[in-house]
Write the structure tokens for this entry.
Amino acid sequence: MHSLNPTPLDQTTAALRTDGWSVIAAPDMVTWLGATEPELAWLQSTWNDLPADTHLRDGGHYRFRRHSCFLVEPATAHVTQVPHRAHWQPVIYNALHGGIERWFEPITPDVAQHRVWQALLGHLGQLLAQVKPVERWFVEAHQFRVDTTGGIGRPTPEGAHRDGVDFVAVIMLGRQGIKGGESRVFEADGPNGVRFTLQEPWSTLLLDDERVIHESTPIQPLGQHGWRDTLVLTYRAGGFQGPSST
């Protein structure tokens, strides 16, 4: 396993430009967001109320999910939720689930309007705009729980992939009673890659989706049952992905 050395927050944009990926340590994220322990504990608890993902084409029943879309203005870090819409990816980026409109239950209003949630989307939008200047980010947010129902859970059943966006943030919320769930990041046009496991809640992996491909390995239970909770945020310039997008 690659030894994970998180990037200091003030060096994150340089790392994204140089390597195409970066990891922000959990303490740095918490301080950056100005979050309190009760706020974080409450947000983490909302992962206990995710509906089943009914679109899995591998026949599995191991993933639970909510999804909503937002606009983020980097100049002000202002976050606006947009009317609920389907999640869509082209087949070129997701051979397993691409080309179809997938409707998921929305992220609940108390989460979407929470101060820390708004700060998280806004702060990341400002940071990523330092790497790629934009006036507005089109952000899709996915609350994920992958559990070990059936003995194994697959965080990325589509395998190593890109998402067809500009940047991806994978935020660890919690791991319980599992092994596996290793993050793997590879150059899209080269031989190099790294592998490590996000362990601590609020540790955050940032990816330049144009330069790297990524995946998370399957999880297995250490005992009777286990799970892995993440928040995945995708930042895209120019609009949300849809059947008519390019």
Observations:
- Helices lie at 12-19, 26-33, 37-45, 109-112, 115-131.
- Residues 45 and 52 are 17 Å apart (CA to CA).
